[in-house]
Amino acid sequence: MDMYLTTEDFREMMRVMYTDQQPYTLGEYEGIPLASEVCEIMDELRSFEVRADDCWIVTYPKAGTTWVQEIMSAVMHDGNLEEVNKSHSMLRVPYFEQTFPEELPTTHRIADEMPSPRVIKSHLPGQLLPPQIWTKKAKIVYVIRNPKDLMVSFFHFEQMLNLKGAGLSFEEYLGYRNSKKASYGSWWDHYLYFWKRRHQPNVLVLRFEDLKRDLRGNVEIISQFLGKALSAKTLDDITEHCSFINMKNNPMTNPDSLLAADEIPGRSFMRKGKSGNWKTHFTVAQNESMDALIKEKLHGTGLTFDH
């Protein structure tokens, strides 16, 4: 991706897009709410030329994308962290549906020119991804996170970047995000599309909470899934590189260094990276309502979350 953009160029674009309060509007594509500018290029995205050796990180937003994309990038660089740290993660792993000002190519066109094997990230629901992903059996790593923690993380993110949920109280935000009117659609439909396909050989479904409990073990699982037989020392090094504190302190992995979030006191893309932080935000009534919704939407699927 950096064959077109330098880190400095990318940072300036993000500053314009996010700190200059550009209007954010939602459109709809095949019944899924998406940013209006994304809707305009969705036909192109659907016809994207997928390669059989592509590695995709797909998530509902705020489920652990930044974390796992860095693990995947480090693995696909065979643990060469010196090389990994030469460019920012957001340049190494193109955000498939990211749009830029008109004078610059869209991310999927930049990805077209990247050498194989590519690591590409997307938040698109499975049914909106390029159909070639499924016919060519490209590898997909999908991350599921407790929806309560997802709500808290997404709430702070939208406030920070002045997105659609900005200005809502947490109570109002829960109503918005727990509907099919929120950006990227409902979290449960997004989750279940991949959960139902978790046994397909080209799909690896991970839980954010398992990554927190055993990062080293999951780094090895990801490595094996991506077809890499890395040494124990290399897996240890990747695990250390991808710890939350090291990623937060590394300007080549922390999105704050590109999103200009660090220019405003108290704002940070990498906020806490914890499991169970929802307990500091939900009231008893909100928690009971959320539990009921989770039970309703996931009943009979086998997908459960710790309370």
TrEMBL record:
- This protein's source sits in the domain of life called Eukaryota
Per its UniProt record, what SUPFAM superfamilies does this chain match?
A: P-loop containing nucleoside triphosphate hydrolases
Which InterPro entries does the UniProt record give?
P-loop_NTPase, Sulfotransferase_dom
One Pfam family this chain carries? Answer: Sulfotransfer_1
Sulfotransferase domain mapped to chain residues = 53-302
Give the UniProt keywords, A-Z.
Transferase
Question: In the record, what terms sit under GO molecular function?
Answer: sulfotransferase activity
Q: What family does this belong to?
A: Belongs to the sulfotransferase 1 family.
Q: What is the name attached to this protein's record?
A: Sulfotransferase domain-containing protein
